[in-house]
Amino acid sequence: MRESPYVRSLPYQLLPVLGVAVVLAVLGPFGTYQRMDLVQRLAHFGIIGGLSWIQVVLLAAWFGTIEPIDRWPVAGRMTLVGLLAAVPSTFEVIAVHSWLVRPIPLSLAPTLYPENAFLTVIVSIMIGLFVEQRLRAKADAERERVAALPAPAAAEPGAAPPAQPDFLRRIPPALGRDLLALEMEDHYLRIHTALGSDLVLMRLRDALAELGPERGRQVHRSWWVAEGAVASVDRSAGRLVLILRNGLPVPVSKTYRDRVKEAGWLSSTLSS
């Protein structure tokens, strides 16, 4: 979860979130202008805004690991995040208001939830759009970097270059070209080679489209393994795990087990 773009962009979100809290404190929505002075409103929206922000980011990062939800449009996904984050936030509003002004009974939580959810959903969508814009900017920069690289030599004189960029050109030079595996981490892809690993901004399904079926196989929703990368197989603890040449363990899910078996990666010569 720490590699989520929502978590990685936390420093860039800080100023906008503080700005929203200050604006709300000055405007005093939801009756806070009449019930609190400016200092109280700053404390109120600063505390509630900070807590809600962290809850939204953590929920968004978690949803990024759930592929069906991660495919939703950003507005729909972040609306759900805002609605869920508003549940604990409502009780935080009660606690902070009770501390700053006067006690509020917990029985008022259902009444306070709709207005709190409205604000939380708006903030959540704003954060989602902000992160999405950063991801698009990084993806554009990555495409420009790959496009600027020298084209791979054609197999025969006069032959046309590949229609799609070779995925190997995306690997940082320091990692070499001995590709072992790819691991999906939210919007990012961790490239594992014999020399180490690094993250690139790319989805696993896009990487597989560039690599083609002949270079390896997907063995899990989040993992792809290259041909010749498997050193042994671990069947202990009721799980099937591929051990790569660099010692990296890669889980095999039931969905892909037959494909792995067809590839001959579970043969007795590989078993540990």
Q: In which order are the strands of the major sheet placed?
A: 3-2-1-5-4
Helix share bin: 40-55%
The helix/strand series, from N terminus to C terminus, equals: HHHHHHHEEEHEEEEEH
Shape: elongated
The overall average pLDDT, rounded, is 84
Distance between the termini: 31 Å
The number of helical runs is 9
Rg on CA atoms, Å: 25 Å
The biggest beta sheet reads:
5 strands, antiparallel
Tell me the total number of β-strands. 8
Q: State which percent range the strand residues make up.
A: 5-15%
Helix- and strand-based class? Answer: alpha+beta
Model regions low in confidence, pLDDT < 50 over at least 5 residues:
none
How would you characterize the overall build of this protein?
This protein is an alpha+beta fold and 272 residues long. 51% of the residues lie in helices and 15% in strands. The chain is built from 9 helices and 8 strands. The chain has helices at 5-8, 10-27, 32-35, 38-63, 67-70, 74-100, 109-148, 204-211, 254-262; strands spanning 179-185, 188-193, 196-201, 216-220, 223-226, 230-234, 241-244, 249-251. A 5-stranded antiparallel sheet has the order 3-2-1-5-4. A 3-stranded antiparallel sheet has the order 6-7-8, with no helix packed on it. Strand 2 and strand 3 (196-201) form a beta hairpin. Helix 2 runs antiparallel to helix 4 (38-63) and helix 4 runs antiparallel to helix 6. The longest helix is centred in the middle third of the chain and has 40 residues, at 109-148. The mean pLDDT is 84.
